[in-house]
Design brief:
eight-stranded mixed β-sheet; seven-stranded mixed β-sheet; single chain; FAD/NAD(P)-binding domain; Glutaredoxin; alpha/beta; 15 helices
């Protein structure tokens, strides 16, 4: 049976963009996975006259290099790049084959100017939605700068290597044999770690920008929706954010977005960015806001690096992050057994014992997924009953290798100094303290609004950490609005975030109309 199946026709169209011949040099052995990779590469080569398959030698088998014939331009996969990494593979083939990248020219020039030799290794999982962005960034850098080398390694194929390096979270990136970073990274963020002046250069690029009519802080569904609605009014609109997509990027299957029966977080994030860029929106990434400075006519938003952005109105849409347990050992073993993404890191715990903390939908779904790859899953819930949908509870209770513990308050994550070895919890009813031996802890206890950067701005923040706003998105500060998961919206869903963001933008536009009469801004909002 073909490895690519129905994808062949689609890939054939993509490969028509190739400008130069590409060689796929495979290092194989007699294993079934090597045979699968060989079939995959042969199918790919059949789709374009500019792609050929050869054999090579490499310590990692199966693996293959994508090389521009007659040059030293090359990237390597120690993986069968299906699942989320198929897009990474296609982009690598196209870029090695001379198809230009869409990354901003100034970023590409920074990559070219990097001095020194860089050997990157990225450990990934094919089920990880965060991995492709890192893989694609480092692949592109290795195409642009011949002194940069990158290999993407599927942890499930090279378990001995993963265990030797104690990799318990993906993506994990090594540089020149030392751990470089973990988690999602854009090419700009990689550059900032390699080039000490990159952050100041990025901040300097923001300095001196003319005031915005609407400045949106955050670029998840609420932020992008707000920017689109503002831009459609013909007013000067900007977005400043760490990344486009926000929490959407960490979401696997999305099946409740009206009119879209099914999509995945990274796909939706890409669509959000494309939609925003189709309008005259100044998109400024990756930048984290660190302070809001309200003013009588212009508000200021300070970003890391010290740059100040000015705007007549500001829409706060910074979203939320994973809530943490806040117990001893959690930070010590973060990414070394403590993780927050079962889809990304679950395959690294194949055959091991793990715990899931949290009995809501996300926790129960995580336990169900993990039961399919791990030896045993223990779900611990603080309350006296699970909060997940009944259909999910029935599924969880039906699994032979899953256990549910109610009234359990996690008090400590234990480890041996290198990785997690267990956890301790207190029984809320009896008071008894119990220890559980395990290899991983998946924390699924909800989200925490990203509003700490608003401290001292005069904005009202409630006991849940949300920016208080009315049904129009209006906050206590004139000209400042809030939307999405960081605000007091009734429900935290993608579809409600869209509505919340658009409402805030319309409210900002209305505010501008009513407060800028007789000024230059009156022309912009006419």
């Amino acid at each position: 049976m073909p490895v690519l199946g129905q994808l062949s026709k689609q890939l054939e169209q993509h490969f028509k963009l190739l400008r130069q011949p590409v060689e796929l040099a495979a290092a194989l052995d007699d294993s079934p996975r090597s045979r699968q990779l060989s079939e995959f590469l042969d199918e790919v080569a059949a789709l374009s006259e500019l792609i050929t398959v050869t054999r090579s030698d490499d310590p990692r088998r199966p693996s293959f290099a994508i090389s521009r014939v007659g040059t030293d331009v090359s990237v390597r996969f120690a993986a069968i790049p299906l699942g989320h990494e198929l897009t990474s593979f296609v982009l690598a083939v196209l870029q090695v084959g001379g198809h230009p990248s869409t990354v901003r020219p100034e970023i590409l020039e920074q990559v070219r100017q990097l001095e020194g030799d860089y050997e990157f290794v990225t450990y990934l999982s094919l089920t990880c939605q965060n991995c492709p962005e890192v893989v694609q960034a480092l692949n592109l850098m290795s195409v642009i700068n011949p002194r940069i080398r990158h290999v993407a390694v599927d942890g499930s194929l090279f378990k001995d290597e993963v265990e030797a390096r104690n990799v318990l979270a993906v993506p994990t990136v090594y540089l020149n044999g030392q751990e470089f970073d973990q988690g999602r990274m854009t090419i700009e963020q990689v550059l900032a770690k390699l080039d000490s002046s990159a952050a100041s250069k990025a901040a300097h690029a923001l300095a001196g920008k003319d005031p915005f009519d609407v400045l949106v802080v955050g670029a998840g569904p609420a932020g992008v929706s707000a920017a689109i609605y503002a831009a459609r009014k013909g007013i000067r609109t900007g977005i400043v954010a760490d990344r486009i997509g926000g929490q959407v990027l960490d979401t696997m299957a999305i099946e409740n977005l009206v009119s879209v029966p099914y999509t995945e977080g990274p796909q939706l994030a890409t669509a959000l960015e494309q939609h925003a860029r189709s309008y005259d929106v100044d998109i400024m990434t990756p930048h984290n806001a660190v302070r809001l400075i309200p003013g009588s006519e212009l508000h200021e938003v300070e970003v890391e690096g010290g740059a100040l952005l000015r705007a007549r109105t500001v829409i706060i849409a910074t979203g939320a992050r994973w809530r943490q347990l806040g117990v001893p050992g959690e930070q010590d073993y973060r990414n070394h057994g403590v993780t927050y993404c079962p889809h990304c890191d679950g395959p690294l715990f194949k055959g091991k014992r793990v715990a899931v903390i949290g009995g809501g939908n996300s926790g129960v779904e995580a336990a169900i997924d993990l039961a399919g790859v791990t030896a045993h899953v223990t779900l611990l819930e603080f309350a006296a009953e699970l909060r997940a949908d009944e259909i999910l509870q029935r599924k969880l209770y039906s699994l032979p290798n899953a256990e549910v513990v109610l009234n359990a308050r996690t008090t400590e994550v234990a480890g041996d100094g290198h990785k997690v070895t267990g956890l301790r919890y207190a029984d809320q009813v009896s008071g008894a303290v119990r220890d559980v031996t395990l290899d991983g802890v998946f924390v699924q206890i909800g989200l925490l609004p990203i509003t700490e950067w608003l401290a001292g701005a005069g904005l009202e923040i409630n006991e849940r950490g949300e920016a208080v706003a009315d049904d129009r998105g209006t906050t206590a500060i004139p000209g400042v609005f809030a939307a999405g998961d960081c605000a007091t919206t009734a429900y935290k869903q993608i579809v409600t975030a869209f509505g919340s963001g658009s409402t805030a933008a319309l409210s900002a536009f209305d505010y501008l109309i009513r407060t800028t009469a007789g000024t230059d801004a009156d022309v912009a909002v006419a």
